[in-house]
Design a protein that fits this description.
Elements: H1 3-41, E1 52-57, H2 63-78, E2 83-88, H3 99-107, H4 122-127, E3 130-133, H5 136-145, E4 153-155, H6 175-212
Parallel strand pairs: 1-2, 1-3, 3-4
Helix pairs in contact: 2-6, 3-6
Length: about 210
Amino acid sequence: MSRITAAWFREHLRRYFCGLQETGRHSYRRLRFLREMFERNVPKSLPLSVRTILVVCTRNLCRSPLAEVYLREKVRKEGRLLTIVSAGIDTFPGMPAHKLAREVAGQHGISLESHAARPIHQKLIQQADLVLVMEMTQKERIMKLYPQDRQKVFVLGRFCKKGSLDIIDPHRGGRQDFQLCFDRIKESCDQLLENLVRDDQSGKAAANLDRKE
């Protein structure tokens, strides 16, 4: 094989594999888009009679702790009996919440000063009536690890009317990133609680109708 032929062959081989990579990336983006559309738009009933909520993110240092303390304070003010806990998929036990997460929480009248990271485990999943995750990849991972509990796993961002489905981890960002993250968590949690109240009332109404019949 001449040097010119070899160079031509290498160049066309390079272009071929670059084309395969681009096709793969395009297919992945399209598949991800379809999964997000399905997650956000296809109706999926929340579990009935939710009493314990588990919030999950990657390290249990930013997003899930913020959601945990916000939900806990909101249900306390509303006088509702709900247990809220959080955990991380890849974390070390006992780590404190991120400094900026603590600051943002404090600005909104809630505290993360006593937070200690907790790794997720099977008992936590089993004890929860509802599991909230921050990203589609986290939902997929939890459903693989605990397939028997797949019906109770929801992406928190599906309850937010704006932004992407995933609530992006702000841990490498600044204060504004943490504030934006908290805003999305707050809106998602508020809508979630409204849905839980509505579903609970509908369930009670249906139960009363059954008793009358």
